[in-house]
Every structure is written in C-alpha cells, then in structure tokens.
Amino acid sequence: MIKAAVLGFGTVGSGVVELIDINKKSVSRHVSEGMEVKYILDLREFPDSPYRDRVVHDFNIILEDPEIKVICETMGGKEPAYTFSRKALERGISVCTSNKELVAAHGPELLKIAEQNHCSYLFEASVGGGIPIIRPMNTSLAPENITQIIGILNGTTNYMMTRMELEDISFEDVLREAQEKGYAEKNPAADIEGRDACRKIAILSSLMCGKTVRFEDISCEGISHISMTDVAYARSMGRAIKLLGISERDEEAGTFYVRTAPFMVPASHPLHGVEDVFNAVFVHGNLLDNVMFYGRGAGKFPTASAVVSDMMDCALNIGQTIRIRWEDEKMELSDPGQKITQFFVRVPASEKARAQELFPGCVEAAPGCGPDDEFAFVTEPVAEAAFAECSSRLSEVRSAIRMLAD
Ligand code: HSE
C-alpha cells in the first residue's frame, strides 16, 4: 500500500481523502498496491469526521515516517506550504499540489529540488481545477510551437459573469453564492481582481516557453468595474464578457504578450459558451492548430481528482522524477502597451464628437442598448498605449473593455 499524507483538510484536501476512498477501485486499477492517506495535517480537530484519527498537528510526524511516499499539499498560500513542500522534496517524498500561488512563485525551484532528490513536484490542479492541462502541456503538446493560449482560468468570476448575464442579480449576492459553493479563494479579492487567473496564466506561459514568466510582470485587471450595462451591451453585440488570461507569442521580439483582463468574447469563439464554474484553455499550436481543454475549474471533487491523478503518477514513479520543463531563468515579456487591440468604450453623449475625433474609424456599438445620455463605440485596432493616451483626453470614460478577435 502506498502511504500518503494530506496537508490541509479544507475543501480540496478533504476531497482528496474522500476521493481516494470513493474511487478506491479505480485508483488500485492503476496503482496495484493501492493508496491510503495515513495522515492529515491541519491546525483544527475534526471530531465529526470519519478521518479524525488520521489528523495530526505536527508536520515532523509526517516527514519522519519512512512509509510516506507522497504528500498532497492543499494548504494554499506561500507559508508554511513552501517550507513543508521543500522539506518533503529534500527527503525524496513527492509533492502534489493545487496551490497556484506557491507554484507561480516557486515552481522551478521546487522542480529542481525534486529532481535532485529523485522525486516529483506535480501541480495539475493548480490551473483549471479538474481540467487536465499541465500534463498535456508537458507531453501531448510538447512537439508544438505554441503561439497562443487563451484561458478562462477562474471559476468564481466565470460563475459570477454568467449569473449576471442570465439574471438580474447583484455583484455581492452572486459572489456570496460562489463562496458558498466553495469556488472562491479565502480572500475572494484574488478572484475578483484577477490575481488568481494571473497566477494561472503565468504558470501556463512558463510551461509554454520553458522559462519563468513572473506573475508580478503580467498586466492584470479584474472584473469589479464591469457593470450590468456593459453586460447588456455585450449581449446586444452577440458577445459575452469573460475574464481571460492570454499569452501570445510576439514573433518580432521573440517573447510573449501576457495579460489578464475582462474581454468581450464573440459568439463565434469556442470560449463564448464556457459558462458557470467551468474553465477552458484554448491553445494554438503551429502545426496542431487549435485545441481546447474544458471542465470544472473549481470545486471540491473536480480539483481533488486532478490532485489524486498526480499522486497516482508519483506512486507509479517512486525513486524517479517526472520531469517538467520549466527553468528558473526569467522570461522578459513584450510591452503590453504595444499590443494591438480593439476596445469597446462608453462615454457621456456630450463627448461623442471628441471621441470620434480621437478614434477615427470607430463604430457606434449596439445603438439604443444603453442609457440615452451616453455614446458607446468600438475602436479600430489600436496600440494599447495609444488608446490609453487618447482616452485620457476624454472628460469621462464610463467603461473600456477589450474585444477578443473573432
Ligand atoms: N478560486 C479559484 C477559482 C479556485 O475560482 O477558480 C480554483 O483555483
């Protein structure tokens, strides 16, 4: 029997423990010895849980037990998750995680420690919840020159945008729903302000180029400024507003444009129909063409399923490293101000003439859709820095949202 330990008995950690029980047969079909969670590390007691006897409060009990071969780290946050993961890897114990914050900050370092100690550091669940995307990036897509990744990478905000689109429900109420369903981060500002999606596109971009795309270097915008009026305009134009993480190869500079922001996605794009908590990652490879990975991006069992798949891989590879190509070297990114983009803009009606002068070739958007006192338009493709400069000359910009190309 392969003995494992789970660090953090929250939504995902408890899902991992239960899933290993519920799907015992599936697990042992692949890992013939079977797999068992021997310890659960948490600060809390769980007197009503059937797993209460496995709860420990001291990480050293796990570290010093030679039976433990795999650790599942579902604590979230950087510390003590980083210290515990590093110590385990240094002892040759593989670590599997859903902790995107830690992976985005220390991924290549922990991968190197794993390799030096003949074990593995795997993080399938850190991006897209239950969607297999990290493993395909590392295997099936390896022969490709990937030129674009566009992802709906945050279940909470996609759930919120979908509910706001379909029903007249307030931002606060719909956020509460997402929290109750266990989708949101402990501090949901990380979801709403785009930082969670930003960490995930940083991880995917790093795997895309094999170097480190630092999440701090990525231009990041969330959804808190999106109004019901914007949502109505998008619908009238046959589009839906989605928070996207985008990474695109800049062929001239040999690097990437990477951004997280809300976009108006056209109905013709496969990401348009991705609703509720679902996430999707759309990848363009130079010879493969387009491929899209779709599934539940958050929630207890979908995320746990991805973690357990990693734990099983580690169980099948004890004493050796499952390699992931991701070096510490920093990837310089292209200046996002030079990216050519079309914008949807709302200004007061009194600014119509000025807007038309500043943005020649702009087209009025969904006439009659919004309030009488405003002018909404779509710009021609323009460099983002030039757009920012021109729009600063308007007395008021009620909204400016990027349009995803067809
Ligand atoms: N808060 C995250 C989300 C959880 O909503 O996508 C999964 O990473």
Compact overview of the structure:
This protein has 406 residues and is of the alpha/beta class.
Protein model, in words:
- It is a single chain.
- The protein is of the alpha/beta class and 406 residues long.
- Helix content is 34%, strand content 24%.
- It has 14 helices and 17 strands.
- Strand 4, helix 4 and strand 5 form a beta-alpha-beta unit.
- Helix 5 packs parallel to helix 10.
- The longest helix has 17 residues.
- Bound molecules: L-homoserine.
- L-homoserine binds next to helix 7.
Outline the secondary-structure elements.
Blueprint: E1 2-7, H1 11-22, H2 24-30, E2 35-41, E3 55-56, H3 59-63, E4 68-73, H4 81-90, E5 94-97, H5 100-116, E6 121-122, H6 134-138, E7 146-152, H7 155-166, H8 171-180, H9 189-192, H10 195-209, E8 219-220, H11 228-236, E9 239-250, E10 255-266, E11 278-285, E12 289-296, H12 300-316, E13 340-348, H13 352-358, E14 363-364, E15 374-378, E16 382-383, H14 384-391, E17 399-403
Parallel strand pairs: 1-2, 1-4, 2-3, 4-5, 5-6, 8-10, 10-17
Antiparallel strand pairs: 7-9, 7-11, 9-10, 11-12, 13-15, 13-16, 13-17, 14-15
Helix pairs in contact: 1-12, 4-5, 5-10, 7-8
Bound molecules: L-homoserine.
The site of L-homoserine (HSE) has 11 residues, from helix 7.
